[in-house]
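Just curious: can you write whichever protein you like plus the matching structure tokens?

***
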Amino acid sequence: MNPMTSLERTQAVLDGKIPDRVPVALHNFLMASYMVGAEFSKTLQSGELLAEAQLAAWREFGHDVIMHENGVCAEAEALGCLIRYPAQGPAHVEDPVIKSAEDIDKLEIPDPEYTYPLNEMLKATRILVKETGGKVFIIGRADQGPMALASALWGPQNFLLAAADLEMRPQVLRLVEKCTRMNIVYGEAHRRAGAHGSSIGSYGHSLISTRMYDELEYPGDKAFCDALRKVGCRSFVHSCGDETKLLPNLVATGADCLELDPKTNPEACKKATQGRTAVLGMLDPHGVLLRGTVDEVRTHTLAILRVMAPGGGFLMGPGCALPMDTPPASVHTVMECARTAGVYGADGSLPNLH
């Protein structure tokens, strides 16, 4: 099989085809900034600096998928929350914009092209697409999914208490619907900026029940995936924690790819997703990639490849954001495994994987 470009390799996986080798995607916005010695409080607010850090990491590792964002606060800030940007570390919501249910109807969905910091993230997308020459798959992340964004806007405790109160359900639904619209508008803007895909972070079993997922999260996740499909953009749904029992619900969103971490059972994940959707992730960012030796990283990576890679449908990478001080040697080891053991035969097997 002739070597593919990173873009071709990734698109093959998302199309249900067998690529030349397993692609690697890095959820590494913190690590990339740390590697270039950036001051996070400046870099996470600048499209140019974010793109510069991501490009430096890409030139270092040669991964196939660049996943860029400035954390999980961009949409919340655009909608009016006060955000704190530490000098080192991720941003966080310091003051939610919703103080009472009456504030929900005051929220207006902004135009990402002209609203800070979304416009800076779109600038980063344009730079990354241009500088990688159309050969790398770019994911401009659309931030938090409907319930996570609603939680940021109202404060986690207030939102979850309201979500559990059936008398508050009309207000909660209005808020979640507005958050879904924000996700879609922002994802579509990333597509116009040249991104090949966009993603949202879904609430799953680590925080809510299956019933609450189906009632409050699933409709927005599906609407996001449906909307992106209409504009020719690949949809990714991220969900942290052990989502083994929620896999059928996540697959039903119609996402082109699910972003999952190794707390989800790999064998069950492969069975539930094979031929239905692709999976991105499954490598342990904290327990192994951050703290493991090179040999431990290699053993872990090969173990995940054995389960997830046969037959295609797999983009390998950390299941969640890499810590900022992840050793570069860990990522180089993952890349080495992908380029050697991750090579496919025509039948979808991995003949070099022992």
